[in-house]
Write a structure and sequence with these properties.
Layout (H helix, E strand, L loop, with lengths): L12 H14 L2 E11 L11 E11 L12 H23 L7 E8 L5 H8 L5 H8 L7 E5 L5 E8 L10 E6 L8 E9 L21 H5 L2
Parallel strand pairs: 3-4
Antiparallel strand pairs: 1-2, 2-7, 3-5, 3-7, 5-6
Helix pairs in contact: 1-2, 2-4
């Protein structure tokens, strides 16, 4: 008589969370920063239905700092980026009320001066980060981004747009992050950001409804 194969028991949610937190420490995460802002008014207009934006960042040891530009980035990228995607999106969902409440998202990274901009790119510009951020936040759009190579305390504006409809101009927005003691020269700050709604008072139309515009428009404007 053939016996049915036993399926592995599902992992307890708390155990998964514990494992992720421990994995973050193992790959060199020094700090996790979460900031949020609630927008109630913008300019002289009336109060608006509040929108909350949040940014989650991990300060991590740069595994490639000081290495030659011929170094293969793939092994460490594949090991580290998925962990960061999970840790940071968990933080965003915690402060914004879950993936269903999130309408816009984005990503950024700053590498310290002992590294290359490509080191920052390795941790945010591949499916090992981007695909997972989309999955965990319920999105389908390509993630808009910013990245930089700089010293500790540098501000970076993290751009966001609609998580399922990137052409929706109402959700084009940014949130700015600055970490006073990061990145150290041998570190990278990896960032995920999200928003529960659009900019206040959006009214500049949408890419899907724009009339065609070419350089000929200047003939209508210039005398």
């Amino acid at each position: 008589m053939c016996s049915a194969a036993l399926s592995a028991p599902a992992k307890d949610t708390q155990q998964v969370a514990t494992n992720i937190e421990e994995a973050a420490r193992t790959v060199g995460v020094r700090r996790i920063i979460v900031q949020q802002e609630e927008i109630l008014r913008d300019g002289p207009g009336p109060m608006i239905t509040s929108v909350t934006r949040a940014v989650a960042a991990a300060v991590i040891r740069n595994p490639w700092a000081g290495s030659d530009v011929s170094t293969d980035l793939a092994p460490e990228m594949e090991r580290i980026a998925p962990i960061l995607a999970k840790v940071l999106t968990d933080r965003l969902k915690d402060v914004l009320g879950g993936a269903d409440e999130i309408e816009a998202f984005g990503k950024s990274a700053i590498v310290g001066l002992a590294g290359e901009t490509e080191h920052a790119a390795a941790l945010i510009h591949t499916p090992f980060y981007g695909n997972l951020v989309r999955e965990f936040l319920g999105g389908s759009s390509i993630l808009c981004f910013s990245d930089d190579r700089s010293e500790a305390g540098t501000s970076i504006a993290v751009p966001m747009w609609h998580k399922t409809a990137a052409a929706t101009r109402s959700h084009y927005q940014t949130i700015t992050l600055s970490v006073s003691d990061a990145p150290h020269s041998h570190e990278i700050v990896v960032v995920a950001a999200a928003s529960t709604g659009p900019r206040p008072h959006p009214r500049i139309g949408d890419r899907t409804t724009d009339r065609p515009v070419t350089a000929e428009i200047l003939e209508e404007i210039l005398p």
